[in-house]
Amino acid sequence: MSELKKIREAKYLTQEELAEKSGISVRTIQRIEAGTEPKGYTLKTLAATLDVSEKKLLISEILNEEIKVEEPILIIEKEVTFNSNLVKMINLSSLPLAWFPVANFLPPVLIMLFTKEKSQIVKQIISLQIFLAIISPIVFMLIAFLKLGSASVMMTMICLALANVYIILRNAYEIDKKRALYYKLNFNMI
What we know:
This is Helix-turn-helix domain-containing protein. The protein is mainly α and 190 residues long. The protein has helices spanning 3-10, 15-22, 26-34, 40-50, 54-58, 84-92, 106-115, 120-145, 150-178.
């Protein structure tokens, strides 16, 4: 795991949030976390944004040295503010169209627009449904082109719909219990 990723996660920041705070693109942050060494302006900006020394961002995993923290790190849990009942309703609104993956993201989008609930968790719910709306037809078409028979095509359709229903219900449970999503993407599509 890269030093940037360790520090970012210790401060409870997503890649998108760090990008927004620092002005560095999400893609650049992803590259650095994948192993590219930050330099110049990027290094200085990330160090300043994360309130760490530039040297700390450059420590390599190859050294396998034990890193000793000189001062205690105060971790403050980020307060997530959203109406959990409304968010749960937005999530569950995908259920009626779970069998039709191309349109399953429309009810949550419409409810988000009408209620103006544009929290990060709502964006994640909609992004996940859009992702499923893209992936499901691709999987379905692959099975159809492989000509495995009408039974396999039908089973694929049923499995995709049931997987979507499970994802929606599991996320609704997590929203209710932990005010978070169980299934989410590492990026937003909206």
